[in-house]
Amino acid sequence: MATGIKDKVAILGMGCSKFGERWDAGPEELMVEAYLEAMQDAGIEPTQLDAAWFSTHIDEIGTGKGGTPLSLALRLPNIAVTRVENFCASGSEALRGAVYAVASGAADIALAVGVEKLKDTGYGGLPVGNMGTLNPQWSPSGSAPGNFAQLASAYRAKHGVNKEDLKRAIAHVSVKSHANGAKNPKAHLRNEVTEEQVMGAPMIAEPLGLFDCCGVSDGAAAAIVTTPEIAKAMGKKDIVTVKAMQLSVSNGLESQHNSWDGSYFHTARIAAKKAYKEAGIDNPREQVSMIEVHDCFSITELVTMEDIFISPEGGAVKDVMDGFYDADGKVPCQIDGGLKCFGHPIGASGLRMAYEMYLQLQGRAGERQLANPKIGMTHNLGGAPSQNVCSVTIVGAHGV
Amino acid sequence: MAQQLVGLTAYGGYIPRLRLQRKSVVQANAWVAPNFLGKGKGERSMANWDEDAVTMAVEAARDLLGPDDDRSHVDALYFGSTTMPFRDRLNSGIVAAALTLDEKVRAVDVGSTQRAGTSALLQAVSAVKAGEARHALVLASDHRKTKAVTAQELDFGDGAAALSVGTDNVIANYLGGASLTVDFVDHFRGDTEEFDYNWEERWIRDEGFAKIVPRAVKAALEDSGVSADEVRHFVLPCSFGMKFVQQLAKRSGIDPETARDTLAGNCGETGAAHALVMLIHTLQTEAKPGDKVLVLQFGGGCDALVFEVTDKIASQAGKRGIVGSLKDRMEETNYMKFLTFNGLIEWEKGMRAEQDKKTALTTLYRNEDMLMGLVGGRCKETGVVQFPRSRISVNPNNHTVDTQEPYKFAEKKAKILSWSADFLSFSMNPPNHYGMVVFDEGGRIMMDFTDVEPGTVDSGMEVKLVFRIKEFDDKRGFRRYFWKAVPIASSAAKSQTGQAAE
Predict the structure, then answer these.
(1) Which member of A112, B190, B258, B349 has the greatest number of CB atoms within 10 A?
(2) Is pLDDT above 70 for B501?
(3) Is the ipTM of this complex over 0.90?
(4) What architecture (CATH level 2) is domain A143-210+241-397?
């Protein structure tokens, strides 16, 4: 029986570039920006790094394939670099690789860097991706908003929520994230918006309007991990450790078997359950202090509140409208602005979520600092509701 | 031994839902062609952007064949059209794959003339008479491209007809016929040209129709042993008006009242399909058992076929045919949309449309029944059905291995589980509708929707499946086909029945 990851690995340092339309920076500069901050935070030299994991999703317009883009940009000392890709959850995969390397004893100190340079396409929204040779011959040639928007129609049908109420609830999701993002100097979108603005915005994919969609941003984030023992030996205080790290991947049930109703994420429920077990959490609504979830679209965040068992089934609309997930609510969600406003440079996003949890747990989150958080959770999703990968990571103060 | 009677055994029809209002065309063009203002009456059928001669033929054939999985009885397929999408790739082979016909079917493309539809029918009759085919399927379909500001864009329509030829349960016996071959060039479409080049109408009328058609009528009546006064239905596609058609009938000694509706007002002339479209329309409306029907098609001469309707005609009552297709209509008043769908406008599709649409032909062939026939799998042990078929079953309770047999989805009942109307992704007809379609008897497919009326779609709505163009590969002249879902309630609710406004 596996003993799990709990408290075997500590975060030694983290960094994150400014997210946004970084016309000034290529992926190399973005990686360097996040890396230098993480190295300074960790207080180590490059020669102390044993191995690195590198995440980027769209190689056609980004860095290209392989581990070399990271090693070249950072001038790493010829250590192992593994490139990982798992849709929008790629960043969490890089972190998982580094954490597992340390936990296995193969590395004392490991680096994870995620980057995405999206604004080199010439148009708004995500680039049109490559799906292999079979999928384009039958799958709808849709878009991310069109795929995620379908959650809304299925959720309404299942829970009997009318169009207007759901539209307002998802609008509140975005209003809250904008309020949070406004306080984050590294965030892409730093303006506050009203529910009326959100609801009146141009339609992107029914029922998702412009403000229901996250920013398409350039950025990079980095983590340096080690064992709690080494961190202590280095004199680190307020050590943050990994409590759980789970990934669940669709096997075709949602897209091919009629047991899935289209209103929730099958994988998220599995990953969340396993993560709570690994971390020893039995009542997430009470025990989790804060969450960063994959709010690529407002509707994704709303249904995810149920999938990670913080809102009861069918209860997310009420919780959202009650302000349960607002900055001053019981379980603040996207306190850094989330994908919605911090931005979504795909390969970096999982690491960006962890970055915010780490800052909060160390009391270094500035204007948006929460009062005494103990446990933070990230939920990083890739793919579409009907076929996806879902990563759930729990971090917390060492010894909690 | 008396020769067995050969004739039509079933029919099917398909006219695209969109009906371009001629008024909107002539008004848009009045600045340059005020002479066409008088033609601004009624409507013409207009293919959606994802329809072509092949997809329309498939729809007509499905109407004829019905929902039965077993189509192995079809042993010959004759497909007539002048607008086949491929110059060298068996177009009837695409149709056969979409219909999941047996590979032993003899599939033949018949083209190059407006007579392609009737000639396909004559070939089928010959094959069945000769005993080389028992159940021949005849399809005729045309989607002719016309230049803007022409009489043709107003006169033409898009559509398809299906007839089967056999010896059992004959609804109309074939009594005889004739084909005249005359190199009378009323119009032509050169090898490298997209559009027809037309000669003067008065010459076509007086030297072509008026002289060639009566000779074909005479020959066909002689061959069939039917006298002119026995003809109850005179079926002749012709764009010179009903009065002229009546005169032609009269000139051959046929009662002018038997001249059948050319469907000029509510459909337009569907090219090589039109004689069969009009025949099916006649069989659905005015034909009674015992009636003799004369079907004519002018073009490079003239084909003439004589049929006698039997009492088995009642067996076709449930078919959509042409009458049902004409009822299922959606008025289109946007002439720009017609021009755009027909590739006559250079428009900015956006960078998202730049993605290479190259089709891996190896992949296409490996997955042929899935992609062309919408065939998935059914587990022989658990009965679970799925799309696509796979070696390991998707069944969460029992991932059986190598237990799947082919399972056809195209004719199964299905509903929308989830959907969206997407303004972001490229679409020829935005917003791009797609979603998860769930089949009543199991299985589901995330698929494109088409023929959608925006604002009417919702979860739980029934859909029917149609074979359509998925994407064009303009770089290579290829087009990919796949199946799409048409929300039924929206078409039923929004369909305006009855005649077009004059």
Answers:
(1) A112
(2) no
(3) yes
(4) 3-Layer(aba) Sandwich (3.40)
